[in-house]
Write a structure and sequence with these properties.
- The protein is an alpha/beta fold.
- It has helices at about 15-20, 20-35, 70-90, 100-115, 135-145, 160-165, 170-175, 190-200, 230-240, 240-255, 270-285, 305-325, 345-350, 365-375, 405-420, 420-440, 440-455, and strands at about 5-10, 35-45, 55, 60-70, 125-130, 150-155, 180-185, 205, 210-215, 215-220, 255-265, 290-300, 335, 355-360, 385, 400.
- About 45% of the residues lie in helices and about 20% in strands.
- Strand 11, helix 11 and strand 12 (about 290-300) form a beta-alpha-beta unit.
- The protein binds GDP-alpha-D-glucose.
């Protein structure tokens, strides 16, 4: 069996993968089974960061990490990846800060990662590259002469052609993707948008699952990422910490209906629009007062990017306004917490919440929607309200599907969820769980790797 090399911006955790969640567990399992190498950024910046990797070994698995200089980190990570590609791929052209310096830094750092990995590769390796940090990485490896099968999976949405075309150098970015053998996207819609770009912007030709363009051929497939459904359901039902959290929350609610939102604090997640929809519920349905309680967990991420600081201020303002207007001495309508909760406690929190409110404005998949459902009590399950713009909505049509921009529709969905009969809740839950169990994270990983194993490199790197 060939060795698996996983490339992702952040590496690990390996020892305590279960604490981090399904994705880390699925990757560690595959790396261990095949004897693997996990490669990426160390998370450290260092003025004298050299072109070399530190390698650590742990049970049939090596971790190789590279430091970045502060300039590389600013241009590649904060700059091009997070201030340019992230907003643009989520349709926020208004927030996209294109800067040639960021672009060049991104290209340079992709080349550096490739240069450091290349001598560590073996002829029979299979390489699996993850996400928008490494669009140009495969092509850099090919230029160095790598001939191994290389697959790429994009965790975020692939944008519509006209949106992508606003990015200077979009053509070079997409051309670079053709160095991969397999391109994996979250949904069939992402595949369609990729094919549309290739055909209409670059004169590509589609032939079944393959796209020919720039003298190369890639296999394009949707691999919707899942969670460890059975494992998470078991934690929610049986784990001590999950039970403790469930009981604590249930007691504190004193019979109120809890609505829960759990997100990384990010403008793509639609948290401000969600707060406005909740305010609309309180305004238009006064009978909800004292009967509902909304808990939003939004742990800070990327705090160093200015747009994220502004968003925090906006959310602080909105939550203060809602509680000031509708709250009372004995009722806080909205609790908004900026700190993370341990994964096991999160499972208990989901289970104690009658409504899961997952309303991103754009999302590649959204794993919170899946975790919320998996954590429910099958005898008395809660209701998921899910944005139509999350990739998860295609696999989860039994959720209440909403337009997150329409605050009235979301407020009404909250009312529908509150009054939904036990029978309907069970029917929806059972249908959702059947799919979540078959289309779990192990299936996602195995489908991707078997597709990659089936391809053979046919074409040389382009200039
Ligand atoms: C990207 C794509 C795609 C959140 N708060 C806490 C916490 N979390 C965990 C959740 C969930 C994960 O973080 C978030 O996953 P999402 O899928 O919702 O979103 P992104 O972070 O944006 O991930 C996304 C994903 O990649 C996978 O391909 O689905 O579309 O944007 O697992 O539970 N975990 C803990 N405490 C928290 O407070 N322990």
């Amino acid at each position: 069996m060939s060795r698996l090399v996983v490339v992702s911006n952040r590496v690990g955790p390996v020892k305590d993968a279960a604490r981090a969640g399904g994705l880390a567990v699925a990757l560690v399992d595959a790396l261990r089974a095949q004897g693997g190498l996990w490669y990426g950024w160390s998370g450290k910046t260092n003025r004298r960061a050299a072109d070399s990797a530190s390698i650590e070994s742990a049970e049939n698995l090596d971790l190789a990490t590279v430091d970045l200089t502060p300039d590389e980190h600013t241009d590649y990570y904060n700059g091009f990846a997070n201030r340019c590609l992230w907003p643009l791929f989520h349709y926020r052209i208004d927030l996209t800060a294109f800067d040639r310096r960021y672009y060049e830094g991104y290209r340079r750092v992709n080349a550096k990662f490739a240069r450091v990995l290349f001598p560590l590769l073996r002829a029979d390796d299979t390489i699996w590259v993850h996400d928008y940090h490494f669009l140009a990485f495969g092509n850099e490896l090919r230029h160095m002469g790598a001939e191994q099968p290389i697959g790429f999976f994009l965790h975020i949405p692939f944008p519509a052609r006209e949106v992508l075309a606003t990015l200077p150098h979009h053509d070079a970015m997409v051309r670079g993707l053709f160095a991969y053998d397999v391109l994996g996207f979250q949904t069939e819609r992402d595949c369609e948008r990729f094919r549309d770009y290739a055909v209409r912007e670059a004169g590509g030709v589609v032939n079944g699952d393959h796209v020919h363009c720039f003298g190369r051929t890639v296999a394009v497939h949707a691999f919707p990422i899942g969670i460890d459904t059975e494992g998470f359901a078991q934690i929610a039902a049986e784990d001590k910490e999950a039970r403790r959290q469930y009981e604590k929350v249930t007691k504190g609610l004193a019979g109120r209906c809890q609505i829960v939102g759990v997100d990384r604090l990010d403008y793509t997640k639609g948290i401000a629009e969600r707060f406005q929809a909740y305010e609309r519920l309180l305004k238009e349905y006064p009978e909800t007062h004292r009967q509902v309680s909304y808990l939003q967990i939004a742990a800070t991420s990327r705090g160093e990017v200015a747009e994220y600081r502004q968003m925090r201020e906006e959310l602080d303002g909105l939550s203060g306004h809602i509680n000031g207007t509708y709250g009372d001495f004995d009722w806080t309508p909205l609790r908004y917490l900026n700190k993370p909760m341990p994964r096991r406690a999160l499972a208990g929190l989901y289970r104690a919440s009658k409504i899961g409110l997952v309303t991103p404005l754009r999302d590649g998949m959204n794993l919170v929607a899946k975790e919320y459902v998996a954590a429910q009590d099958p005898e008395d399950p809660g209701v998921l309200i899910l944005s139509r713009f999350a990739g998860a909505s295609y696999q989860m049509p039994e959720a209440i599907i909403v337009n997150p921009y329409d605050t009235k529709e979301v407020a009404d969905a909250l009312q529908i969820a509150r009054y939904m009969s036990l029978q309907e809740r069970r029917e929806r839950f059972e249908a959702l769980m059947v799919r979540l169990k078959t289309e779990d994270v192990a299936r996602w990983r195995d489908d991707f790797l078997s597709t990659l194993a089936a391809v053979r490199r046919r074409v040389p790197a382009a200039s």
